[in-house]
Amino acid sequence: MSKEYFAISVADSKIPFRVFYERAATGAPVVRPECKDLVCKKCGKLSTHAALQRGVPNLVEIDSGLGMDVAVSLDHILTLSRRAVDVIERAAPGAVEFFPPTNDSERYFAYPRTIFCPPAGARTYTPVEEAVPGEAFQVRGRACSSCRRFRSVTFQPAWFEPPSNTFLGAAQCEPGGAYGTESFTWLIASESAEPLRSLKGCSLRDLKAERDTLRSRTHLSL
Question: What's the pTM value of the predicted model, to 2 decimals?
């Protein structure tokens, strides 16, 4: 019997903030000077994990009064309260790499240890093509010849089945646009999910229910 999973949804922050990007004089977001050497010279995407390993620039201001245990920055970085770190570590020990605060924000930063990527040979969608039922990843554009990241990747979690030994992992997405950081859709096994319901700013999507609804609409037996 296959394991069931929930997708973790994070509410939009009431106080928008950036981690590795800042606002230029023109109003457009640009990579902070401390991270510019981590940007791919061919496609302009920022190596999110390398930036987190280096540490969040001290100039970053993240209001500790966000009022949420879980929040996502405008540049797609998942930030957590100390309480959220403890809850997640108890629910899925070792599944998340936590980066401690490097400033006065008291917010931690999270990166998945298990990452799901588009399968080799995944077909390339047109820029405006809608997701095909049964296909979890939608790849748009070729992979960069240097960093191998795609121009754009979206993800439909209801059509994805993680390996059965996964308790908590995340699908790598590429939102494109002004920010060159990755975005992740986090998935957690049902037997590990319950503690996360207590976290403010976090909700769980029942993927089995979503999948059953989609099957009934598309007549697929996936």
Answer: 0.90
